[in-house]
Amino acid sequence: MLILIRWLAGRSLRLLHAWGGVLGWLAYAVSPSYRRRMNENAALAGLTVWQRRAAVADAGRLVMELPRLWLRPAQQPIADPVRWEGAELLESLLARGKGLVLLTPHMGSFEVSAQAYAERFGTIKPMTVLYRPARQAWLRELEETARARPALATAPANLAGVRLLMRALKRGETLGLLPDQVPPEGMGVWATFFGQRAYTMTLAAKLVQQSGAAVAVLWTERVVRGGGYVVHAMELPVPLPDAAAGDEAAAQAINQSMEAVIRMKPDQYLWGYHRYKKPRRLEAAA
Q1: Count of alpha carbons within 13 angstroms of residue 206, beta-carbon side
Q2: Domain range for residue 108?
Q3: 35 within domain boundaries
Q4: Total number of domains in the chain
Q5: Is residue 89 included in any domain, yes or no?
């Protein structure tokens, strides 16, 4: 498998995205559970038939572009064109010096979001990204080495990882979180997401409310035919309430913000993600 991944890393983005479209439809065809979940989740958001079809292919493109993003040398910039929209917002927020929390939904190329930030702003403030380690040992090792780059650190989604995030924020650095990722049991509350109850993380809001850090949205649009990426930085569509409003109100505000962002490019959202599953048990610190 690693030999194949290394070989794919040397192919052009245009070719990988073409193969990825086929892979997306293959996964959709052979997995009834994935197909059912993707259709049900997309229906909740009211996607058209054409938007659903585009989302099927784009999910495969996400997978196929990973070797090219992960396996290039650590000091080498992203090989494909990256254009920014809203970079001036991040510049102004970083200038406050109180830390920054960037929220990225499972949309477009979310792997690029963190790497692009590190390349452009990492010398000003490095970033630490929360992620869930893969279950397979070989993939977990690959993720850990591929995602750790200059000015870009990773923190596992467990108690030890949360402590790493808190320390980074105290240093005035930047955090990257996927707020539509189902958190471990005890680290979230139930809130509505596209009309259905979903277990939603409370960590993002608590970090912002307790530290006074700034918060913004960062997501990356995948350009057609392997044309590269557009990184979008924008204000949170629905402002976070203060801590007195409670965890449920904060989680609901974040979900509403993510809904608004996803509707900007619904065909690039990962509708096959198991968003409405029950939370797993919280892992102890490693």
Answers
A1: 13
A2: 80-268
A3: no
A4: 1
A5: yes
Q: Which pTM was predicted?
A: 0.93
Q: For residue range 46-85, what is the model confidence (pLDDT) as tens digits?
A: 999 999 999 999 999 999 999 999 998 888 899 999 999 9
Return the amino acid letter for 262. Answer: I
Any domain includes 85:
yes
CB atoms within 10 A of CB 175: 26
- Give the CA distances from residue 105 to residues 167, 180, 271, in Å, rounded to whole numbers and listed in that order: 23, 6, 11
Tokens encoding 280 = 């797993």
Q: Does residue 193 fall inside a structural domain?
A: yes
d(CA 163, CA 61): 33
227-264: pLDDT as tens digits: 999 999 999 999 999 999 999 999 999 999 999 999 99
Integer CA distances (angstroms), 280 to 47, 187, 255, 286, in order = 29, 10, 20, 17
Encoded tokens for 286:
């490693």
- Cα 160 to its chain centre, rounded Å, is 20
